[in-house]
């Protein structure tokens, strides 16, 4: 018999998604199909749902505080599992939106106890309520040995600033709100698929990085303006692909452009 996979991914995919919704199902299916992971889902739908009248009130007074509390509680759970033999060096936590901060707090709490997960992938971490919080209350570069963040909706639902050891900025621009190729610039009903198109592109890119390895290639630069002024050769000098967890990667910001639909990756043409 083939031995079971030893690499474990535990995913809180997003705060507003159903456990059986398209985002959760797609990400989990991609990892299962890859055949390298034991996958577990942290289902916190009830703690992240609209429990109070109005989205803003429910988010700030219910979902965000619950994410912080659950982040610590989940760290306690992993601590107990580690004491029973779980190897935290084989743990990869994947969180989308508010879930990214939940796992960031989990990792930071574990780090304060002298233990860390191997990798956290933050998929477009939430902006509201977290942009100016101290590190221990949000996803931060020290939450895991490798913290990789993919920003696809910065300044709207996603965070404006870097939060990882490696931060990818697909299709970033300085002049206004980032619009991912294939997403509509026109205003849409809040939390409709059209409204969430940019915010959801991050998990679509993660899945694509597994189906088409090496195609979502980002170029390292101090900031977007520096990257735009790089020559073609300078853009190729330090690169990294979305989907990788490399504790030895050159830290900082990575920029790339993508296609409007899958396969999103353009390889070196996207630099």
From TrEMBL:
The keyword Plastid appears for this protein: no
Ranges in a coiled coil: none
Entries under Pfam families matching the protein: Lipase
Superkingdom of source: Eukaryota
GO terms assigned for molecular function: lipase activity; serine hydrolase activity
InterPro entries, A to Z: AB_hydrolase_fold, Lipase, TAG_lipase
Major location (coarse): secreted
Localization: Secreted
Location of the Lipase domain: 30-264
Alphabetical GO biological process terms: lipid catabolic process
Keyword Secreted annotated: yes
Record keywords, A-Z: Secreted
Any one GO CC term of the record: extracellular space
Similarity-based family: Belongs to the AB hydrolase superfamily. Lipase family.
Protein name: Lipase member H-B
